[in-house]
Amino acid sequence: MSYTTSSPFTCAVSDAARVVLSGCEDKVSVDKPAIFVVECEPSLGSPHVQVLSPTRNALPVSVKPLDTPGRFSSQFTPRDVGDHSVEVKLGGAHVEG
């Protein structure tokens, strides 16, 4: 995370290249858990993961640390057919990508 200089405002910026989501297939079955891993710099802390259904309803997401610092297992269960949106925040800032 870096900070802008010469400004009265603080703006934290996260490098999306330092955050990797892996393990979740493109297609997952309704009512079956979907599991993926979030990897990030340990100094960024735990990620906040939100999954939105095709109707933009937030689904419950479990985020648990794994054995390696900066690696977290995330799990959600789709209830609807269609594209779901995964949003990740680190240090309160959205991770683009």
UniProtKB/TrEMBL annotation:
Entry superkingdom: Eukaryota
Filamin repeats: 11-97
InterPro entries: Filamin/ABP280_repeat-like (IPR017868), Filamin/ABP280_rpt (IPR001298), Ig-like_fold (IPR013783), Ig_E-set (IPR014756)
Name the UniProt record assigns to this protein: Filamin
Species for this entry: Laodelphax striatellus
Lineage: Eukaryota, Metazoa, Ecdysozoa, Arthropoda, Hexapoda
